[in-house]
Structure formats: C-alpha cells, structure tokens
Amino acid sequence: MTHSYIHIAVKRFLQKLGNNFIDQIWRLGAGARLFALMLISSGESFRRFRLVVREVYFTGVLSLVIISVSAFFVGMVLALQGYNTLQKYGSSEAIGVLVALSLVRELGPVVTALLFAGRAGTAITAEIGLMKATEQLSAMEMMAVSPVSRVIAPRFWAGVIALPILAALFSMIGILGGYLVAVPLIGVDAGAFWSQMQANVDWRFDIVNGVIKSIVFGVACTMIALFEGYDAPPTAEGVSRATTRTVVTSSLVVLALDFALTSFMII
Amino acid sequence: MERTTIDLWVGIFVALGIAALLGLAMKVGNLTTNTIGATYTVEAAFENIGGLKSRAPVKSAGVVVGRVGDIRFDASTYEAIVSINIDRQFSFPADTFANIYTAGLLGEQYIGLEAGGDEIALKEGDKIMQTQDAVVLEKMISQFLYNKASEPESAAKTPTHDDSVKTDDDALTANAL
Amino acid sequence: MTQNIVEIDNLSFGYKNRTLHKGISMSFPRGKVVAIMGGSGSGKTTLLRLIGGQFKPSSGEVRVDGKVVHKQSREGLYQLRRKMGMLFQQGALFTDLSVYDNVAFPMRELTDLPEIMIKDLVLMKLNAVGLRGASQLMPTELSGGMGRRVALARAIALDPDIMMYDEPFAGLDPISMAVICDLIRTLNDALGTTSIVVTHDVEETFSFADYIYFVADGVVAAEGTPDDLRQSTMPFIHQFVHGEKDGPVPFHYAAVDYKQDLLG
Q1: Based on the domain organization, do B19 and B70 belong to the same domain?
Q2: Of A143, A164, A178, C260, which sits with the fewest C-beta atoms within 10 Å of its C-beta?
Q3: Are A143 and C54 inside 8 Å of each other by CB?
C-alpha cells in the first residue's frame, strides 16, 4: 500500500519537474522568437524616434532618483569600508582607486541593472500585462497596427539607451560619494585620491568595458520585462506573478551575464 | 514638431549621461593623462619574464613611454618574446637595455628601458638585444640558502661570535631582497 | 463584388482540449446588421476573432471580401483588417492616451494625413457619438457607457466596411444601452457598413438587427429575421427569447445524479 503511494508521489514529482523544465524551455524559445520579431519590427521605432524618447522618459528619467541616491550611498560605504582595510596596510590614498574600480567595473553596471529591473522592468511588465488583459494589444492588432513594432520595440530601445546612461551616472555619483567620505570626512589627500585613481583606471579596459556590460544588461533586463508582460496570462494574478518573475529572472540573468562578461574581459 | 516637457527631461537625462561619461573619462580614467597615441613596436626576448602581463607599463627614467603588447613563447629558443609598444614621440637608441622590474616589493611588474649610446634609433619591428630577466623571489631565496649551506664551518668555528653572524645574515637577507 | 462581404464556411475551431465550433456556416450581406446570439461560453467572441484573423480555424474557412482570412500573409491580413473595425467588450481604450489621441491613433498610425485634418476627423467622429466635449479626458475618467462610445468612435475612425461589436451592451445601464443600440443602427445606415453584433441581450438585438444567428453547442441552432424568430416554436429559441432558466439549455452543468452525489 505505502509503497505504491510513494511510487505515485515520486512519479508526480518527476512529472511536475519535467513539465516545469519543458515549460521553461518553451518560454525561452518564445522569448527568443519575440526578440527576433522585435528586431525585425524595429524600423518604425527609428523612423518615429519620438516613440522611443517617450519611453526613455518612463524607464530612464523616472529611475534617476533611485539610481542617484543608491549610488551616493554605495560610494560612501565603499570609501568607509575601503579606508578601514587599506589603512592597515598604510595605503589609504589608494582608496580612490578602490572606489572607482569597484564602481566602474562592477557595481555601476550590476547594481544599476538590478535597480532598473526593480524600478523600470516591473513597470514595463505590469503595463504590457495590463494592456494585454484589457485587450488593448488585441485592439491594436485588429486596427492593423503591430503591437510588437508599436509597443514592444520602442520600449526595448529605450531600455537599451537608458541603462548605460544610468550606469554611467551611478559610477560618477558613487565616486563623488566616495570622495565626500574619503577627503573631507576622513582626511585623505584630495590630490592623491584623484591622481591614484587616474593612474590606475584605464579608459579602454575599465570604463569602456563597464559601458559594454551595461548595454548587455540593458538588452537582457528590458527584453525579460517585455517578454514577461507579453506572455502574462490576462488576469490580475497572472500580471502580478509576471512582475515578480521579471525581478527574479532579471537579477539572476544579470549576475550570470556579469560573470560571463567579466571572464571574457579579464583574459 | 511640437515640443513637450518629456522631450526636455529626456534631453537633460541624455546630457547628464554624456557628462557622466566625460567625467569618467577625464577625471577618473586615464584618457587624458596616460593614453598613448600612435606607437611603434619592438620586440625583446627574455629567459624569464616572471609575472609580466600584457598592458603592463613600459617606463624609462620612471616615466611611462609605452605598454607591453602581446607575450608569446618561442619554442626554438625557449625564450619569451615580448612585444613592446612605444609612443612615437620617443625614440630610443638601438642598443637600449630592457629590464623587467617590480614596482615595490610585491607590486606589478613593468619593463624599464635604459637608453644606450648608439646613433641609430630603434624602429618598428626591431629587436632589443640586451635584456635582463625578471627577479624571481623564490630563486633568490633558494640561492641564498644554498650559499649559506655551503659555508657551515665558518659558523661552527666561531660560536662565540654568534651575534656578528646573526647581523651578517640579516644584512645578506636585506641584500638579497 | 460578392453580395456577402463576410462568409463563414463550415468552420470548426477548438482550443487545446475543447472544441468550440463544429462546422458553422454563416453569411453577412453588405449593409446589413447581423447579430450572433448564444449563451455565455458558446464561442461567439471567438467567431469575431476568427473573422479578424487572430485565430486560425482547425477546418473550414472565413472569407472576407472573397479572401480566405487564415491563408493571408501578415501583410495581406493587415490589409484586410484595415477594412474592419472592432468594438471590444471592455472598450480596450489605450489608457495612456487621452480620448482625443485614442480616436486619432488609427489615423496617425495608418495614414499620412496632416495633423490639422486628423483634428477635424477626430472631432467629427467624437461628435457622432456625442462626446466631442470629452476629448481631453483620460479613459480612466470616463463611465463605462462613455468609454464604449469613445471606443466606437475609434473603431469607425477610418470608416471601415465591416464593424464588429463584441457584447456592446454588457454591463451598461438602460440609458447607455439605448444610446449604443441607436448608434449601431445609425452608423450602419449612415456609413453603409456591414455590422456584426455579438450579444445575448434579446430585446435590444431584436429591435435593430436585420438577421439573427443563434449559436449553441458549436453549431448554428437557428437563424432568421427577428420576426421569424419571435414566431419560432423551437424549444431552444423559445427558452432564449423568453429568458426561461430551464429548458433545452439546462440550468445544471452536466453532473452525476444529485442524490448519488450527496449520499456519496
């Protein structure tokens, strides 16, 4: 008796696992198809760039506050922690390098992408999910207007434009925050702070690589948010679950991509 | 085309982004200070390059004059061939000496160029003939220990001069390092 | 030019594990108001989507203007859709655009008309539904009936040949209902369109439709002019028209015997 119950339970568990896996693969394929369709239908976004500008406002400008404030605090914490450790080795003037390199190479692109997924990504998913639930996308299709070129593509390009800008701002504001803690507060020499930084931060291999990372993250985060919204079941529950999935998936993908990109960049 | 407040905000946003990138380039990065413009490439062979990496600085008299390009292994001579990119505005004599130095005790390794006295200048594709390998710390310590081991009697003979021997050791260690 | 602008020919359609239509044939003559009636869940709305090419039939075909809808390329399908206007059940207004921009949307997207001309057209369409004064409101500020009228103005923005109405009366108060009812008839006659109305409101439909199809169990259960149907003695039609809760369409969803269910 019990044996057959366990048998059934295990079978159900495996079935569920398998179904889940197949479902994920299916979603991956559907996402890739949407991505390809979006790329093909992007012409309109560039002919009517105003559509993109409007979305840059919603994804980029409206994320400015959260990005600036977080960057400021991250920079200050980096300076405090860095000073604490560096002064043990008598090299507290290297604090500028530490703050700048951590921000430009890693924290700028990564933390910005994570905040972007939480702030702009969820908004995109919820908006598109609701548009679908209220038949707005169907209505557009019935008007012979493709929702992919009118709704999806402009939001995608806006995200790809906004994220690198936000990441550059994050790095710059973070460095200013680090400066404020290191120089006026702790008393590190301002000249040493900047000159050490300049001597050790490379334009091509640190800054440009950081920008490349943030562009890749922009593509990933925006596309995930768009797909989750487009794929959401047209119900309140469906949209809310899709929004949660946007944050979870984007965060994991950003961290994994960060590892992959870093390993390419540091040969 | 009518203008909207959204356009204004997006304009400000993009301008801020460009300003941040410029700030990173000028104030944080080495775009203005350390960038090398057009370069010419010469090669140098070393028996041991230690921890030298590509993109390491090439200095002369302590000033950065170039960067290390790629490093490869020559299977016929069993040597490391290092290509050195030198800024075009600096020309060096053909008999220039290339050394691998370490910045500080544990710092990164770089190539130091010491100008010779030749009339002919190095040009693209030339080879620097005189090189000195990287100082490998382990090698030095083992050498020191070997030297120490080969003279055991002197230490044994003079047990009363214990103190002087000790200072001797310290001095040797300091020299070695 | 065929006499029927839309023809449904022996159409079958089903979702994954449920067949919805089992060989439906209908025809919609030009300039007429044709109603499709049936209980909830009988696949009426899906029929509209099949006409609009949003779903593909599993067999049979839908012809619009002589062209088979599901065999069109993407471009061809969009060409066909330009001839159609659709009023969605919830209105489906774009919530991020004002009433004015909603009505202007199809004109801006699909034509190269100058903005000044679009303005005149939009105001004309809004005037036709009596909401010219509301042009600067946002969709969230409108009542259900007003929202549906704006959606109607948007659907007729490009003077379609075929207008499709998906449950135009659902959830409206009697006054709004009468207004919409009147608009459907007036617009149909004034613009010379063909109207396809999907609904289950008996009285309103009988008052304005030229021809009515009843759909039940995936087939056309009855058809005819309102007068014919009123006289009909078919039990199903009788039940539907007079709103009796039990009859050929049972009150109870198919289940095992009640007594057996209770006693376990």
Answers
A1: no
A2: C260
A3: no
Q: Which of C48, C109, C150, C167 to probe the A interface (max A CBs under 10 A)?
A: C109
How many separate domains does chain C show?
1
**Chain C residues in contact with A144 (beta carbon < 8 A):** 78-79, 81-82, 110
Please list every residue in chain C whose beta carbon sits closer than 8 Å to the beta carbon of residue A136. Answer: 92-95
Q: Provide the residue-wise pLDDT of chain C in tens; the chain has 264 residues.
A: 467 888 888 888 887 777 888 888 888 888 889 999 887 777 888 888 888 888 888 888 888 888 888 888 888 888 888 888 889 888 889 988 899 999 999 998 888 889 899 999 999 889 888 888 888 899 889 888 888 889 988 988 888 888 999 888 887 888 888 888 888 888 888 888 889 999 888 878 888 888 988 888 788 888 888 888 877 777 777 777 776 666 666 667 777 778 778 876
| Nearest CB neighbour to C82, from listed A130, A139, A144 | A144
For B6-30, the three-class secondary structure string (H helix, E strand, C coil) is HHHHHHHHHHHHHHHHHHHHHHHCC
Q: C107 in a domain, yes or no?
A: no
Residues of A with CB under 8 A from a CB of B: 53-54, 56-57, 60-61, 64, 100, 104, 162, 164-166, 168-169, 171-173, 175, 194, 197-203, 205-207, 211
**How far is it, in rounded angstroms, from Cα B96 to Cα A25?**
62
- CB-CB under 8 Å, A144 with C81: yes
What is the per-residue DSSP string for C71-109?
GS-HHHHHHHHTTEEEE-TT----TTS-HHHHHHHHHHH
Q: Phi and psi (nearest 5°) for B25?
A: -65, -45
Triad B34, B37, B38: Cα angle to 5°:
150
Is C89 among the domain residues? no
Q: What is the domain range of residue B31?
A: 1-35
